[in-house]
Structures are given as structure tokens and as C-alpha cells.
Design brief:
The chain is mainly α. It has 3 domains: 1-61, no CATH class; 65-232, Helix Hairpins; 291-388. Helix content is 60%, strand content 5%. The protein has 16 helices and 4 strands. It has helices at residues 2-18, 22-35, 39-50, 57-60, 70-83, 91-101, 106-110, 118-132, 142-156, 159-168, 202-210, 238-279, 314-317, 320-358, 362-370, 374-388, and strands at residues 219-224, 227-232, 297-300, 307-310. A two-stranded antiparallel sheet has the order 1-2. A two-stranded antiparallel sheet has the order 3-4. The longest helix has 42 residues, at 238-279. Residues 54-85, 171-195 and 214-237 have low confidence and may be disordered. It is found in: Endoplasmic reticulum membrane.
Length: 389
């Protein structure tokens, strides 16, 4: 894999050299040498240096995290250089992109502390999203910075994902892997897209905040773990927006009445269900102790010895063949209950073991191994008893 990656970088470097971008080509060759040293890359590096290429790339270049793909950055640079020479960027924008690229966690990306409130997260996202949006920031890597900002907010604004990130984010397997490019900050090497994936694309998140009305007419495509998201930004006149809002308001009044008519059958069914439940009598037995229903007298079935609870008047109503039929139903319910509970216990144990393996947590693994399957054991004993009979 390292050799293939190095060959890919060498081919990209050759394309850069053909287009006159020596510094970029030299940078890619240095990266290829760090991944998989080869004579092919060494010869090209020597040739560039002899012809006046920059020799400082090896020492000054900080490779981006794996979530920042070189092909994305290369394509963005090509678009900036060849397709629209008027799209320039400032040194402040370039430095901002590098800051986002080298952040060690989501909190640092948004520039907030770990105790930040939802309002603080929103303010930080609004500011950074407008600053790094590809329609405004044309610095190399701005698209990836915009994706990282959106991913950070999407995770931290979700209470469940934020709790998981706070618990496991700093202990993620990828954060402990040494940087293959020799980065001097291995602890900061993170894959923002594989550790904690957001459930919404950066573009969709931006549209939620700003209504998709960023003032340009460009098309941008963002990639997130192989999935593509494209959005066309088009300037809209105020009159058109006002007219559309008026039409929406008119339609809402019409749709409200239509929705009530559509919900009417559902409401009728709900009322019938509630009425039926009110008229229904209490069951004659329960597998569990239920004093609120008067099921407090303990009994066992004659065939399997399954425990169940009934009310005080049970013996007057259920005798002989009627009692036999009822106890068959009780035993059948009990077996189904054990099977369902056993499956849940096994699933819980399996999930716990998988979590322990995923996060390399020995405590979770030991807890999974020591977890008892009580209902499964009861089911086995019951089946064994039936076989003996």
C-alpha cells in the first residue's frame, strides 16, 4: 500500500512539473520519499533542485491529516490557477486554513473550550463557516477546512455524539497511530471524518444556518467519505423571495384544512382503541407480581412448574380442564419471554464486547466476559427438564 501511494504521489508530482508548479511537485516527491523511498523519486528531486527548485519544502511542509485528501487540494489549486485567475486569496486566509488543518480536536477547530454552550457553538460556527466558505475563501484547502468546521459543529451540537466524542475522542485508535509522514506532532494526527462522522453534510448544515443564499453563482462539490454533495448557489432578488413567501402562506392555510381531513381517520382509530382498552377486563394471570392489578397470589403450573401470579378469586373461576388450558398458555408465554430475554442478553453481551474491541478497552472486554446470561440459563434448564420428562 505504501509503495502504491508513493507511486501515485510521484505521478501527481510529474503533472505539477509539466504545468510549471515546481514547488508543489517537489513537495509531493518529498512526501513520496517519506512514505516509500525510491530511486525514481530521488532522481526527480535532484533534477528539480539542480534547476532552481525550492529545497525548503522538506523541512517546512506539515502533511495534512488523512481527512484532507491531496487530490482535493490539488484540484482546488488547479481550479484557482487555471479556471479563474481573478480568484485570489490573502495570507490571512491561507494561514487560517493551515490552522484548521493542524487542529487536534473539534473544540480547537471551532475555537471554543470543552464547556462551551450550544449558543457558543452556534456563534463560532456562523463566524467560521462564512469565513472559510469556498465561495468566499479561495485559499488551497479552504473546502476541506469548511468540511472540518461543519463536521465539528455537527458532532458537538449533538448531545449524544458530543458525549461519545468527549469520552473516546482523545483515545480514538487513529489518534494513537504514528504519522507516516514524520510529522513532529503525532498526537495531533487525527482523521476527523473516520473517528466521528457527522450525520449531515457541511453544505446541508450551512443551508440550515443561512438558507443557502450565499451571494455568488458558483457550483461547488464537496466529498465526505466517498459521498458527494453538490449545491448550486444562485442570487435571488428580494421581490422573488417576497412573492414566494406570500404563496407559501396562502398554501399553508389550504394545507392545514387538508391535513386535518387526512388525520381524521387516524383520530377515530385512536379513540376506538382507547375506548376498547377502557372496556377490556384485567388478564387472569401475570408472570410477574402486580399488586396494582390485584395479581398477588403466587402459583405454579402443574406440568412445567412455571411460576405465575393471580388474584384471590382465581380458584373459584378456573378449575379442571379450564385451568389446564390456561396453564398451557402460561407456559407458552413463559417460554417466549425467556427466549426474548435470552436474545437481549446475548445481544447486550455482544455489543459490549464489540465496543471493548473497537476502543481497545480492557475494562469493557472483561465486563462482557463476566456478564451472566440468567434468562438463557433458565431456558436451558427448562428445556432439559422437558427432555427428561
Amino acid at each position: 500500500m505504501d509503495k502504491d501511494e508513493a507511486d501515485r504521489l510521484i505521478e501527481k508530482a510529474k503533472l505539477c512539473l509539466r504545468s510549471g508548479r515546481k514547488d508543489r511537485g517537489l513537495q509531493l516527491l518529498y512526501e513520496a520519499q517519506k512514505i516509500y523511498p525510491s530511486t525514481r523519486a530521488r532522481v526527480l528531486i535532484d533534477a528539480i533542485l539542480r534547476n532552481g527548485g525550492s529545497a525548503s519544502q522538506e523541512t517546512n511542509h506539515v502533511p495534512p491529516p488523512s481527512g484532507w485528501r491531496d487530490e482535493d487540494i490539488g484540484n482546488q489549486e488547479t481550479r484557482t490557477t487555471n479556471h479563474d485567475e481573478k480568484k485570489t486569496y490573502t495570507e490571512e486566509q491561507r494561514q487560517g486554513v493551515f490552522r484548521i488543518k493542524n487542529c487536534k480536536d473539534f473544540y480547537e477547530i471551532l475555537g471554543v473550550d470543552k464547556g462551551a454552550s450550544d449558543e457558543d457553538l452556534k456563534k463560532a460556527y456562523r463566524k467560521l463557516a462564512l469565513k472559510f466558505h469556498p465561495d468566499k475563501n479561495f485559499a488551497p484547502g479552504a473546502t476541506d477546512a469548511f468540511k472540518a468546521i461543519g463536521n465539528a459543529y455537527a458532532v458537538l451540537s449533538n448531545p449524544e455524539k458530543r458525549q461519545q466524542y468527549d469520552q473516546f475522542g482523545e483515545q480514538s485508535p487513529t489518534s494513537n497511530v504514528p504519522h507516516r509522514s514524520g510529522n513532529s506532532r503525532p498526537g495531533h494526527y487525527r482523521n476527523f471524518y473516520r473517528d466521528f462522522e457527522a450525520d449531515i453534510s457541511p453544505e446541508e448544515l450551512f443551508n440550515i444556518f443561512f438558507g443557502g443564499r450565499f451571494p455568488t453563482g458558483n457550483v461547488h462539490v464537496y466529498t465526505n467519505q466517498g459521498a458527494s454533495y453538490s449545491q448550486f448557489y444562485q442570487p435571488r432578488r428580494r421581490r422573488a423571495n417576497e412573492r414566494r413567501e406570500e404563496v407559501v402562506e396562502e398554501n399553508q392555510s389550504q394545507n392545514t384544512f387538508t391535513a386535518l381531513l387526512q388525520l381524521l381517520p387516524v383520530l377515530v382509530l385512536i379513540l376506538i382503541s382507547v375506548f376498547t382498552q377502557m372496556m377490556a377486563t384485567n388478564p387472569p394471570y401475570s408472570l410477574f407480581y402486580k399488586p396494582a392489578m390485584g395479581l398477588v397470589v403466587s402459583r405454579e403450573t402443574q406440568h412445567m412448574g412455571v411460576p405465575y401470579y393471580v388474584d384471590k378469586s382465581f380458584q373459584k373461576e378456573y378449575r379442571g380442564a379450564v385451568l389446564e388450558e390456561l396453564e398451557k398458555s402460561i407456559e407458552s408465554d413463559y417460554i417466549e419471554h425467556l427466549q426474548s430475554s435470552c436474545w437481549k442478553e446475548k445481544q447486550q453481551k455482544s455489543d459490549l464486547a464489540n465496543l471493548g474491541q473497537l476502543y481497545r478497552d480492557e475494562r469493557l472486554k472483561q465486563k462482557a466476559e463476566s456478564m451472566r446470561l440468567d434468562n438463557c440459563e433458565k431456558l436451558q434448564r427448562l428445556v432439559g427438564r422437558l427432555r427428561v420428562k
